[in-house]
Amino acid sequence: MPAPDHSSTSSSADTSSAASTPLPPGMVLGPDGKPCRTCTDIKSWRKIGKAAKGAKKEESTAKTASGSDSGSTATTAAAGVAGAAAAAAAASASTPAAFDYEKECPADKEILGRATWTFLHTMVAYYPDRPSIQEQSTMKSLLGSFSQFYPCGPCAEHLREEMKIDPPKVASRKELSYWMCGMHNKVNEILGKEIFDCDKVDERWRDGPADGRCD
Ligand SMILES: Cc1cc2nc3c(=O)[nH]c(=O)nc-3n(C[C@H](O)[C@H](O)[C@H](O)COP(=O)(O)OP(=O)(O)OC[C@H]3O[C@@H](n4cnc5c(N)ncnc54)[C@H](O)[C@@H]3O)c2cc1C
Protein backbone atom coordinates (compact mmCIF):
# COMPACT_ATOMS: atom_id res chain seq x y z
CA MET A 1 0.00 0.00 0.00
CA PRO A 2 1.50 3.37 -0.92
CA ALA A 3 2.25 5.66 2.00
CA PRO A 4 0.06 8.75 1.88
CA ASP A 5 2.21 11.86 1.82
CA HIS A 6 0.40 14.36 3.98
CA SER A 7 3.16 16.87 4.40
CA SER A 8 4.47 19.68 2.27
CA THR A 9 1.82 19.05 -0.32
CA SER A 10 -1.68 20.15 -1.03
CA SER A 11 -4.41 17.53 -0.76
CA SER A 12 -6.14 16.26 -3.89
CA ALA A 13 -8.95 18.70 -3.28
CA ASP A 14 -6.70 21.74 -3.24
CA THR A 15 -7.39 24.72 -5.39
CA SER A 16 -4.99 25.27 -8.29
CA SER A 17 -3.75 28.60 -6.96
CA ALA A 18 -2.92 27.01 -3.63
CA ALA A 19 -1.30 24.02 -5.31
CA SER A 20 1.19 26.30 -7.07
CA THR A 21 2.19 27.94 -3.77
CA PRO A 22 5.09 26.28 -1.94
CA LEU A 23 3.75 25.01 1.38
CA PRO A 24 5.66 25.01 4.66
CA PRO A 25 6.79 21.52 5.79
CA GLY A 26 4.00 19.61 7.48
CA MET A 27 1.18 21.70 6.01
CA VAL A 28 -1.76 20.10 4.26
CA LEU A 29 -4.48 22.22 2.67
CA GLY A 30 -8.16 21.39 2.87
CA PRO A 31 -10.73 21.63 0.07
CA ASP A 32 -11.21 25.33 0.93
CA GLY A 33 -7.53 26.00 0.19
CA LYS A 34 -6.84 26.79 3.84
CA PRO A 35 -4.53 24.87 6.19
CA CYS A 36 -6.25 21.68 7.30
CA ARG A 37 -5.97 21.25 11.08
CA THR A 38 -7.52 17.79 11.01
CA CYS A 39 -4.87 16.66 8.48
CA THR A 40 -1.97 18.00 10.56
CA ASP A 41 -0.55 17.12 13.97
CA ILE A 42 -0.60 19.92 16.50
CA LYS A 43 3.20 20.31 16.63
CA SER A 44 3.36 20.96 12.87
CA TRP A 45 0.25 23.14 13.08
CA ARG A 46 1.88 25.37 15.64
CA LYS A 47 5.19 25.51 13.76
CA ILE A 48 3.28 26.55 10.65
CA GLY A 49 1.49 29.18 12.71
CA LYS A 50 4.73 30.60 14.05
CA ALA A 51 6.40 30.63 10.62
CA ALA A 52 3.39 32.30 9.03
CA LYS A 53 3.22 34.83 11.84
CA GLY A 54 6.83 35.78 11.09
CA ALA A 55 6.06 36.05 7.38
CA LYS A 56 3.02 38.22 8.05
CA LYS A 57 5.04 40.53 10.26
CA GLU A 58 7.72 40.88 7.55
CA GLU A 59 5.04 41.56 4.95
CA SER A 60 3.43 44.31 7.02
CA THR A 61 6.85 45.86 7.74
CA ALA A 62 7.62 45.85 4.00
CA LYS A 63 4.22 47.39 3.22
CA THR A 64 4.74 50.15 5.75
CA ALA A 65 8.20 50.86 4.33
CA SER A 66 7.06 51.00 0.68
CA GLY A 67 3.56 52.36 1.24
CA SER A 68 2.36 49.75 -1.28
CA ASP A 69 -0.55 47.32 -0.90
CA SER A 70 0.61 44.72 -3.47
CA GLY A 71 0.51 42.05 -0.75
CA SER A 72 -3.28 42.03 -0.98
CA THR A 73 -3.03 39.67 -3.95
CA ALA A 74 -1.78 36.88 -1.71
CA THR A 75 -3.11 33.45 -2.64
CA THR A 76 -5.89 31.71 -0.76
CA ALA A 77 -3.27 29.43 0.77
CA ALA A 78 -1.19 32.34 2.02
CA ALA A 79 -4.30 33.96 3.46
CA GLY A 80 -5.13 30.68 5.12
CA VAL A 81 -1.65 30.42 6.56
CA ALA A 82 -1.98 33.91 7.98
CA GLY A 83 -5.32 32.90 9.53
CA ALA A 84 -3.72 29.85 11.06
CA ALA A 85 -0.90 32.07 12.28
CA ALA A 86 -3.26 34.42 14.00
CA ALA A 87 -5.09 31.53 15.66
CA ALA A 88 -1.90 29.80 16.78
CA ALA A 89 -0.39 33.07 17.96
CA ALA A 90 -3.52 33.92 19.93
CA ALA A 91 -3.52 30.42 21.41
CA SER A 92 0.11 30.52 22.46
CA ALA A 93 -0.09 34.10 23.74
CA SER A 94 -3.04 33.34 26.01
CA THR A 95 -2.06 29.80 27.00
CA PRO A 96 -2.61 29.42 30.75
CA ALA A 97 -0.35 27.07 32.71
CA ALA A 98 -2.97 24.32 33.05
CA PHE A 99 -4.12 24.60 29.45
CA ASP A 100 -5.35 21.26 28.06
CA TYR A 101 -5.29 21.32 24.26
CA GLU A 102 -7.28 18.12 23.84
CA LYS A 103 -10.14 19.33 26.03
CA GLU A 104 -10.33 22.90 24.83
CA CYS A 105 -9.30 23.07 21.17
CA PRO A 106 -10.55 21.77 17.82
CA ALA A 107 -9.14 18.34 17.01
CA ASP A 108 -5.86 17.91 15.17
CA LYS A 109 -5.11 14.76 13.14
CA GLU A 110 -3.99 12.74 16.18
CA ILE A 111 -6.90 13.59 18.48
CA LEU A 112 -9.37 13.08 15.68
CA GLY A 113 -7.73 9.76 14.79
CA ARG A 114 -7.80 8.37 18.35
CA ALA A 115 -11.40 9.44 18.88
CA THR A 116 -12.48 8.03 15.53
CA TRP A 117 -10.76 4.68 16.02
CA THR A 118 -12.39 4.48 19.47
CA PHE A 119 -15.77 5.05 17.87
CA LEU A 120 -15.19 2.66 14.96
CA HIS A 121 -13.78 -0.24 16.99
CA THR A 122 -16.42 0.18 19.70
CA MET A 123 -19.26 0.35 17.18
CA VAL A 124 -17.99 -2.79 15.50
CA ALA A 125 -17.51 -4.54 18.88
CA TYR A 126 -21.28 -4.21 19.42
CA TYR A 127 -22.33 -5.10 15.87
CA PRO A 128 -24.66 -8.14 15.81
CA ASP A 129 -23.11 -11.63 15.62
CA ARG A 130 -25.70 -12.47 12.98
CA PRO A 131 -26.74 -9.21 11.33
CA SER A 132 -29.80 -9.05 9.11
CA ILE A 133 -29.38 -8.22 5.44
CA GLN A 134 -30.69 -4.74 6.26
CA GLU A 135 -28.10 -4.31 9.06
CA GLN A 136 -25.30 -5.46 6.77
CA SER A 137 -26.38 -3.01 4.13
CA THR A 138 -26.65 -0.15 6.64
CA MET A 139 -23.17 -0.86 7.99
CA LYS A 140 -21.72 -0.90 4.46
CA SER A 141 -23.32 2.41 3.64
CA LEU A 142 -22.25 3.92 6.97
CA LEU A 143 -18.61 3.00 6.32
CA GLY A 144 -18.87 4.22 2.73
CA SER A 145 -20.27 7.57 3.86
CA PHE A 146 -17.74 7.79 6.65
CA SER A 147 -14.89 7.44 4.17
CA GLN A 148 -16.39 10.29 2.10
CA PHE A 149 -16.68 12.72 4.99
CA TYR A 150 -13.78 11.90 7.34
CA PRO A 151 -12.35 15.39 7.81
CA CYS A 152 -8.70 14.53 7.14
CA GLY A 153 -8.83 14.53 3.34
CA PRO A 154 -5.68 12.50 2.62
CA CYS A 155 -6.61 9.95 5.34
CA ALA A 156 -10.10 9.59 3.86
CA GLU A 157 -8.79 9.22 0.33
CA HIS A 158 -6.41 6.53 1.46
CA LEU A 159 -9.21 4.75 3.34
CA ARG A 160 -11.43 4.80 0.24
CA GLU A 161 -8.64 3.24 -1.81
CA GLU A 162 -8.17 0.52 0.80
CA MET A 163 -11.91 -0.15 0.93
CA LYS A 164 -11.95 -0.64 -2.83
CA ILE A 165 -9.26 -3.32 -2.52
CA ASP A 166 -10.67 -4.86 0.66
CA PRO A 167 -14.37 -3.99 1.14
CA PRO A 168 -15.88 -4.15 4.65
CA LYS A 169 -16.72 -7.69 5.80
CA VAL A 170 -20.14 -7.18 7.33
CA ALA A 171 -21.42 -10.79 7.59
CA SER A 172 -20.74 -11.01 11.35
CA ARG A 173 -19.39 -9.07 14.32
CA LYS A 174 -16.22 -11.17 14.37
CA GLU A 175 -15.48 -10.67 10.68
CA LEU A 176 -16.12 -6.95 10.88
CA SER A 177 -13.96 -6.56 14.01
CA TYR A 178 -11.06 -8.29 12.27
CA TRP A 179 -11.58 -6.25 9.13
CA MET A 180 -11.54 -2.98 11.08
CA CYS A 181 -8.47 -4.11 13.00
CA GLY A 182 -6.77 -4.87 9.68
CA MET A 183 -7.64 -1.42 8.32
CA HIS A 184 -6.24 0.23 11.42
CA ASN A 185 -3.09 -1.91 11.16
CA LYS A 186 -2.54 -0.74 7.58
CA VAL A 187 -2.46 2.85 8.86
CA ASN A 188 -0.27 1.80 11.80
CA GLU A 189 2.19 0.21 9.38
CA ILE A 190 2.43 3.32 7.23
CA LEU A 191 2.93 5.51 10.29
CA GLY A 192 5.56 3.17 11.74
CA LYS A 193 3.35 2.32 14.73
CA GLU A 194 3.14 -1.07 16.41
CA ILE A 195 0.95 -3.67 14.67
CA PHE A 196 -1.98 -4.61 16.90
CA ASP A 197 -2.78 -8.28 17.57
CA CYS A 198 -6.30 -8.60 16.09
CA ASP A 199 -7.05 -11.58 18.37
CA LYS A 200 -7.18 -8.97 21.15
CA VAL A 201 -9.81 -6.64 19.68
CA ASP A 202 -12.59 -7.86 21.96
CA GLU A 203 -10.39 -7.55 25.01
CA ARG A 204 -9.38 -4.02 23.99
CA TRP A 205 -12.73 -2.71 22.81
CA ARG A 206 -15.49 -4.75 24.48
CA ASP A 207 -14.59 -7.08 27.36
CA GLY A 208 -11.54 -5.48 28.99
CA PRO A 209 -8.56 -7.46 30.28
CA ALA A 210 -9.06 -10.70 32.24
CA ASP A 211 -7.39 -9.27 35.37
CA GLY A 212 -10.35 -6.91 35.77
CA ARG A 213 -8.31 -3.71 35.95
CA CYS A 214 -10.78 -1.96 33.68
CA ASP A 215 -13.83 -3.06 35.68
C1 LIG B 1 -9.76 6.01 9.20
C2 LIG B 1 -8.49 6.68 9.67
C3 LIG B 1 -7.45 6.87 8.79
C4 LIG B 1 -6.28 7.52 9.22
N1 LIG B 1 -5.30 7.73 8.32
C5 LIG B 1 -4.19 8.39 8.71
C6 LIG B 1 -3.17 8.65 7.77
O1 LIG B 1 -3.27 8.28 6.59
N2 LIG B 1 -2.08 9.36 8.21
C7 LIG B 1 -1.96 9.79 9.51
O2 LIG B 1 -0.97 10.42 9.87
N3 LIG B 1 -2.91 9.50 10.43
C8 LIG B 1 -4.01 8.83 10.06
N4 LIG B 1 -4.98 8.55 10.98
C9 LIG B 1 -4.73 8.85 12.42
C10 LIG B 1 -3.89 7.70 13.05
O3 LIG B 1 -4.39 6.42 12.69
C11 LIG B 1 -3.88 7.75 14.58
O4 LIG B 1 -5.20 7.79 15.06
C12 LIG B 1 -3.13 8.91 15.19
O5 LIG B 1 -1.81 8.95 14.66
C13 LIG B 1 -3.04 8.78 16.72
O6 LIG B 1 -2.36 7.54 17.00
P1 LIG B 1 -2.24 6.86 18.41
O7 LIG B 1 -0.86 6.28 18.49
O8 LIG B 1 -2.68 7.76 19.49
O9 LIG B 1 -3.24 5.60 18.42
P2 LIG B 1 -4.34 5.19 17.38
O10 LIG B 1 -3.71 4.62 16.16
O11 LIG B 1 -5.32 6.29 17.20
O12 LIG B 1 -5.04 3.98 18.15
C14 LIG B 1 -5.85 4.18 19.30
C15 LIG B 1 -5.84 2.90 20.11
O13 LIG B 1 -6.37 1.84 19.33
C16 LIG B 1 -5.76 0.60 19.66
N5 LIG B 1 -5.32 0.02 18.39
C17 LIG B 1 -4.21 0.27 17.68
N6 LIG B 1 -4.20 -0.44 16.55
C18 LIG B 1 -5.33 -1.16 16.54
C19 LIG B 1 -5.89 -2.09 15.64
N7 LIG B 1 -5.27 -2.44 14.51
N8 LIG B 1 -7.06 -2.66 15.94
C20 LIG B 1 -7.71 -2.34 17.09
N9 LIG B 1 -7.24 -1.47 17.98
C21 LIG B 1 -6.06 -0.88 17.71
C22 LIG B 1 -4.62 0.91 20.59
O14 LIG B 1 -5.03 0.52 21.90
C23 LIG B 1 -4.44 2.42 20.47
O15 LIG B 1 -4.02 2.99 21.67
C24 LIG B 1 -6.16 7.93 10.57
C25 LIG B 1 -7.23 7.73 11.45
C26 LIG B 1 -8.39 7.12 11.02
C27 LIG B 1 -9.54 6.92 11.97
UniProtKB/TrEMBL annotation:
Gene Ontology MF term list: flavin adenine dinucleotide binding; flavin-dependent sulfhydryl oxidase activity
Pfam families: Evr1_Alr
Annotated Low complexity bias: 7-21, 62-74
One GO CC term, this protein: mitochondrial intermembrane space
Source domain of life: Eukaryota
Alphabetically ordered keywords of this record: Disulfide bond, FAD, Flavoprotein, Mitochondrion, Oxidoreductase
Region span, Disordered: 1-35, 49-74
Domain annotation ERV/ALR sulfhydryl oxidase: ranges: 105-205
Compartments, as annotated in UniProt: Mitochondrion intermembrane space
PROSITE patterns cross-referenced by the UniProt entry: ERV_ALR
Enzyme class: oxidoreductase
EC number: 1.8.3.2
Reported cofactor(s): FAD
Protein name as annotated: Sulfhydryl oxidase
UniProt organism field: Entomortierella parvispora
